[in-house]
Amino acid sequence: MTIPKEGETIQVHSYKHDGNIHRVWQETTVLKGTRNIVIGANERTLVTEADGRTWLTREPSICYFHAEHWFNIICMLREDGVYYYVNMSSPFVYDHHSLKYIDYDLDVKVFPDMSYLILDEDEYAEHKKKMNYPEVIDQILKRNLDKLLMWIKQRKGPFAPDFIEVWTSRYRFYKQVKKSD
């Protein structure tokens, strides 16, 4: 697998289990790229939905993707604090300047005080039937949801106090570099 280079701009592609595209983020700046972890950032980036609708993200976001964990974490930087949106998903793959993953419907919204809500359980149940998610996927997602909730409680990974500070600083650096090009 190729690895995205720090500073380069990539797309993020979200698919559904049946192989259909779900959503595409047009531009994400790579802040860190290894075989296992990609940390990116975007702000006011164009997002295209499967049905062709488009919209712009509202606030700067730091995005955390892992090649072994079945979730990805979007850290949205708002005036009143950092909000996190977690997609329960397949681990990422990187191919042709695009980071790709399968979205498995379940989401977790985490508030600045680290309280959280598990979202879209009904959508998960519906798609599990419709797209015939294998039982092993269900088990993997449940284990990873437990791991994620532990990360939130322990303030680990993107939930660690210094994570946002480190990566927003790096993002500001790359934005300055792009302005001077």
UniProtKB/TrEMBL annotation:
Keyword Hydrolase attached: yes
Keyword Metal-binding: yes
Domain DUF402: residue ranges: 18-156
InterPro entries according to UniProt: DUF402, FomD-like_sf, Ntdp-like, SA1684
Reaction(s) catalysed by this chain's protein: a ribonucleoside 5'-triphosphate + H2O = a ribonucleoside 5'-diphosphate + phosphate + H(+); a ribonucleoside 5'-diphosphate + H2O = a ribonucleoside 5'-phosphate + phosphate + H(+)
Residue numbers annotated as active site: 23
Binding site for Mg(2+) 1: 87, 103, 107
Residues given in the record as Mg(2+) 2 binding sites: 105, 107, 120, 123
Cofactors required: Mg(2+)
Domain of life from the UniProt record: Bacteria
Coiled-coil residue windows: none
Enzyme nomenclature, EC number: 3.6.1.15, 3.6.1.6
Keywords from the UniProt entry: Hydrolase, Magnesium, Metal-binding
NCBIfam families per record: PRK13662.1
Family per similarity comment: Belongs to the Ntdp family.
Function: Has nucleoside phosphatase activity towards nucleoside triphosphates and nucleoside diphosphates.
Record HAMAP family: Ntdp (MF_01568)
Protein known as: Nucleoside triphosphate/diphosphate phosphatase
